Amino acid sequence: MPQFLKEFFNRNGTGMGLAILGLVLFWTIGLIILPQLSMLDFSFRPNLPPPEIGGPKDVYTLENYKYLIYGPEGGGQDYNVVDLKVFFRTLLAAVCVTIFNLILCYPIAYYLGQNKGNHIRIFAIMLIIPYWINEILRAFALRIIFGETGVLNTLFVGLGIWDTPFDFIRNDIALYAGLGYAYILLMIFPMYNVIESLDKNQIEAARDLGAPWWRIHWRVVIPYAKPGISSGCTMVFMLSAGALAAPQILGGPSSLWFTQLIYQQFNDNNDWPQGAAYAIVLLVTCILFVLAMMRLFKVNMGDIGK
Amino acid sequence: MSAGVGVDLESLWIRFGDFVAVRDANVNINGGDFFSFLGPSGCGKTTILRAVSGFLEPSEGNVLIGGNNMKGIGPNKRPTALIFQNLALFPLMKVWENITFSMEIKGASAAERRKRADELLDMIALPGQGDKLPSELSGGQRQRVAIARALCAEPDVLLLDEPLSALDLKLRQHMRTELREIQQRVGITFIYITHDQGEALTMSDNIAVMRAGVIDQIADGKTIYNDPNTAFAASFVGENNVFRGKIKQVMGNEALIATNRSGELVARISTANQGKMKEGDDAMMFVRPEAFAIAPDGATGDHFVTARVNHEEFEGNVFNIFTEGEGGKEIKVSIPNHGQSFEDHTGQNITLEYETRNAVLVPAGELAAE
Fold first, then answer.
1. pLDDT(B216) > 70
2. Looking at residue B66, what is its pLDDT?
3. Is A83 a domain residue?
4. Cβ atoms within 10 Å of B176's Cβ, excluding its own
């Protein structure tokens, strides 16, 4: 038995140790790894009617992946332009949402982290309480705000600032706002956690040495908060790219999110292998993208857990 | 030395809500001085430092640096550099980047900064350590890096907020000498905050003794030790034995005190209180442990104290005798060790003798907490 396992059992006792270990293994293997593996398996099989499953036609194939790139055979186009466009637009939009969220949340996290007192607690509660409301309702609330006859349009047209209502939905503004808002806490709290532990004297020392505020942030606060920033960005990016409810409710009629395509394959087309292949492509691309970003910004995997 | 830039505090008041942290402080610090604010924690000395560095605006009064009023000028625009109690080195920057941070702000090139960092590293006896991180250095080395970082900004006034308090005793004593040397070499004004009277006495040209927001005395170390203004200054700086009583008779600069326990004793009125103390006043007489000598048995008079010995201890350089005193506080007597034989007096009465010039009389007042 390796040393860390021995220590683990010594600390928790054999019974409790086995129970904890069992739960953790069940969680990781039973609920995460096995389903993903079965998805992976699905993605390499043809979509067959139930009687043919396990039959001679049920062989591993790359068809589902090819479909994403080349589209249906004899489809008249060299590449699956529609789906690929949705795929890359989804990734790009997720990056934009992440950057927008970072810019919005950094000052909030800094303020929360460097101030103490009751008003900070109230501020934090005000950030958390909206998340007691479920995601669908929150998305619809934004629809009410951004809709053609919604709060904003009524207000601005009523005030005579705009002549005609602005279509927030068709222009994807409602979608980005919804996605941004959906993951705001996941961006704020990792940063807040790190910034809270930053010694105030460091900021004062930098100021005392003559630094203007932006340089204090650039040289002292941001390097220190990097683990929190990367952790927040990773979560927001992953979750935005994989979001379904917000695009479904707030997306314009012409702008599909890649997850909606996956959803269509599973549900509307009843083509699980095709849906699985799309989902796997999204997952792997997101992971590779995040790893590349981590390398670019010199972030260690251990930092993410901070 | 008067080449440096002086600092003046004019009728400085600092309040936090109802709490008065600094009460009417008037201090003139000469350019090039090593000046210490000495007082127990919570006496307002750090608050004064923050007002000088610009992190805090005084409620009333002015801070002048080199004769210029600093009102409305932020800490990043003042000719001061502050060394924090916890040093506040930037943990993610290398030592050389830490040291030259102030040059980076002014836009100096990396080559220039490297060169200056190497010079300063030589000065603080850490040559070639520029590429380490602060966490790779020892406590004393980090201390020196913090000093170099502050000096690199070429301040007119260096402010030090108990920078030695985190170090162990040996290192602390070594750093005292080093700080004093650095100050004499660079010739700028140092303002030093400490609760450690040893630090203040050994390093400072002048010391301000502070108590609960009030400055009791400003003088050089010798004067503060030998000629304190107040009961607090007398009891806070160094060890002191207190005798309470009423003045029976004033004789020029001396007075006869009817003490509560030890009969009538004579003392010298401290310089600041001469002419201000009169018969019938409550007063406190202070005699340092080393100012007592053991007198022959049976000697009596106005500079002899007889008391029962509670216990004795041998400290190496001195023998300490603790006798019964007033209000549960013992009188401490330190007899220098010249290798003489030393008999045990425990349980016996002994008579102690002092010279009048070593017994200082001040008005009765608050004593420093132990």
1. yes
2. 93
3. yes
4. 18
Contacts of A202 in chain B (CB under 8 A): 88, 90
Q: Are residues B209 and B295 in the same domain?
A: no
Domain assignment of residue A273, yes or no: yes
Give one DSSP letter per residue of A246-286, joined into a string.
HHHHHS-TT---HHHHHHIIIIIS--HHHHHHHHHHHHHHH
User: Cα angle at A208 between A202 and A212, to 5 degrees?
Assistant: 90
Looking at the predicted structure, is the pLDDT value of residue B112 above 90?
yes
Q: What pLDDT is recorded for position B1? A: 40
Which residues on A lie below 8 Å from B73 (Cβ)?
Answer: none
CB contact under 8 A, A202 and B90: yes
Task: Tell me, yes or no, whether B196 and B108 share the same domain.
Answer: yes
Q: Residue A210 and residue B77: Cβ atoms within 8 Å?
A: yes
Q: Which of B82, B86, B89 sits opposite A208 (nearest CB)?
A: B82
B213 and B246 inside one domain: no
A147 located within any domain: yes
Which CATH number goes with the domain that contains A103? 1.10.3720.10
Q: What CATH number is attached to the domain comprising B325?
A: 2.40.50.100
Q: What would you report as the CA-atom Rg of chain A, rounded to the nearest whole angstrom?
A: 24
CB distance B273 to B283 below 8 Å: no
Residue A92, in any domain of the structure: yes
Q: What is the pLDDT of residues A2-54, one digit of tens each?
A: 888 888 888 888 888 899 999 999 999 999 999 999 999 888 988 888 777 77
- Asked if residue B151 has pLDDT above 60, the reply is yes
Chain B residue with the nearest C-alpha to that of A225? B92
User: What pLDDT, on a 0 to 100 scale, did the predictor assign at position A226?
Assistant: 92
Q: If you measure CA to CA, which chain A residue comes closest to B88?
A: A202
User: A33 or A148: whose pLDDT is higher?
Assistant: A33
Do A204 and B75 make contact, defined as CB atoms within 8 angstroms?
A: yes
Q: Are residues B185 and B277 in the same domain?
A: no
Is residue B290 one of the residues assigned to a domain? Answer: yes
Q: Is residue B306 part of a domain?
A: yes
Domain of A202 in residue numbering reads as 63-304
Contact flag A209-B81 (C-beta cutoff 8 Å)? yes
**Residues in B touching A199 (Cβ below 8 Å):** 86, 88
Q: ipTM higher than 0.85?
A: no
What is the phi-psi region of residue A54: left when phi exceeds 0, alpha when psi lies from -120 to 50, beta otherwise?
left
Q: How many residues does chain B have?
A: 370
**Among candidates B76, B90, B106 on the partner chain, residue whose Cβ is nearest the Cβ of A208:** B76
Once rounded to an integer, what is the mean pLDDT over residues A117-132?
88
- What is the domain count for chain B? 2
Boundary-marking domain end, from B162, B195, B226: B226
Instruction: Give A232-251 pLDDT, tens digit per residue.
Output: 999 999 999 999 888 888 88
Domains identified in chain A, total number: 1
Q: Select from B182, B205, B226 the last residue of a domain.
A: B226
3-state secondary structure of B311: strand
d(CA B181, CA B178): 5
Domain enclosing residue B219, as ranges: 7-226
Would you call B317 exposed, middle or buried from its count of C-beta atoms within 10 A (0-12, 13-18, 19+)?
A: exposed
pLDDT in tens, B64-111: 999 999 999 999 999 999 999 899 999 999 999 999 999 999 999 999
